[in-house]
């Protein structure tokens, strides 16, 4: 769908220079999705792996973040291999709705209630990032936290349109459950992509 060089705005790598590769296509259907234009892959031209890598190499940062849409709708083996061969760290942001493919340096798993995650995502997750839209999402977060590895970073992130309502609840929850940390969409505060 698009590629751009910016700062990672959320999650464990917040603040790092990153080349984002956003793939078109998603059937998860989150009503609060902030990139709904990514859902229909047919609205976006196909791009070769060579062109994607060339675009990434035009920038100094060597962190490539593959996101979507839902990137695991596609096999990620060739793309991650090509990026790693030229020195990129490869991170993915995924709902985990499809089997894990690709070679990843970091897996950000952000499950959604609208589509059950594939079992292959749980042992691979380096980061569990749960979007908090309402109070029931805390129980949803705990369900998935019970299935990831012990070293997986646990993050709660307020859904942007409900941040004022949910932020106080997230803060209190983390104070009571200190294995969790907060993730804020800092790129939105900075007004960058």
From TrEMBL:
Q: Pfam families from the xrefs?
A: Radical_SAM (PF04055)
Its gene name is queE
Stated family: Belongs to the radical SAM superfamily. 7-carboxy-7-deazaguanine synthase family.
- Which HAMAP family does the UniProt entry name for this protein? QueE (MF_00917)
Per its UniProt record, what PANTHER family does this chain match? 7-CARBOXY-7-DEAZAGUANINE SYNTHASE
Q: Which residues bind [4Fe-4S] cluster?
A: 26, 30, 33
- In this chain, substrate is annotated as bound at 7-9, 22, 67, 193
Q: GO molecular function terms here?
A: 4 iron, 4 sulfur cluster binding; carbon-nitrogen lyase activity; magnesium ion binding; S-adenosyl-L-methionine binding
Q: Please state what the protein is called.
A: 7-carboxy-7-deazaguanine synthase
Subunit composition? Homodimer.
Source organism of the structure: Salmonirosea aquatica
Task: Write down the InterPro entries for this protein, in alphabetical order.
Answer: 7-CO-7-deazaguanine_synth-like (IPR024924), Aldolase_TIM (IPR013785), rSAM (IPR007197), rSAM_sf (IPR058240)
Q: Does the keyword Amino-acid biosynthesis apply?
A: no
Q: Which domain of life is it from?
A: Bacteria
Function, in words? Catalyzes the complex heterocyclic radical-mediated conversion of 6-carboxy-5,6,7,8-tetrahydropterin (CPH4) to 7-carboxy-7-deazaguanine (CDG), a step common to the biosynthetic pathways of all 7-deazapurine-containing compounds.
Q: In which pathway does it act?
A: Purine metabolism; 7-cyano-7-deazaguanine biosynthesis
The record's listing under SUPFAM superfamilies reads:
Radical SAM enzymes
The alphabetized UniProt keywords are:
4Fe-4S, Iron, Iron-sulfur, Lyase, Magnesium, Metal-binding, Queuosine biosynthesis, S-adenosyl-L-methionine
- Cofactor(s) recorded in Swiss-Prot or TrEMBL: Mg(2+); [4Fe-4S] cluster; S-adenosyl-L-methionine
């Amino acid at each position: 769908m698009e590629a751009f060089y910016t700062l990672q705005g959320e999650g464990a790598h917040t603040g790092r220079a990153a080349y984002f590769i956003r793939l078109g296509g998603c059937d998860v259907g989150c009503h609060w999705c902030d990139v709904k234009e990514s859902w229909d892959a047919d609205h976006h031209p196909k791009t070769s792996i060579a062109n994607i890598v060339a675009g990434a190499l035009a920038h100094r940062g060597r962190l490539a973040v593959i996101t979507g849409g839902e990137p695991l709708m596609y096999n990620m083996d060739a793309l991650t291999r090509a990026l790693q061969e030229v020195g990129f760290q490869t991170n993915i942001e995924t709902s985990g709705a499809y089997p894990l493919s690709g070679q990843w340096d970091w897996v950000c798993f952000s499950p959604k209630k609208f589509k059950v995650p594939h079992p292959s995502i749980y042992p691979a997750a380096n980061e569990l990032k749960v979007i908090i839209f309402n109070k029931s999402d805390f129980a949803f977060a705990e369900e998935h936290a019970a299935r990831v590895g012990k070293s997986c970073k646990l993050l709660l992130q307020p859904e942007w349109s409900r941040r004022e309502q949910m932020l106080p609840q997230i803060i209190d929850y983390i104070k009571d459950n200190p294995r969790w940390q907060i993730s804020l969409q800092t790129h939105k505060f900075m007004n960058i992509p």
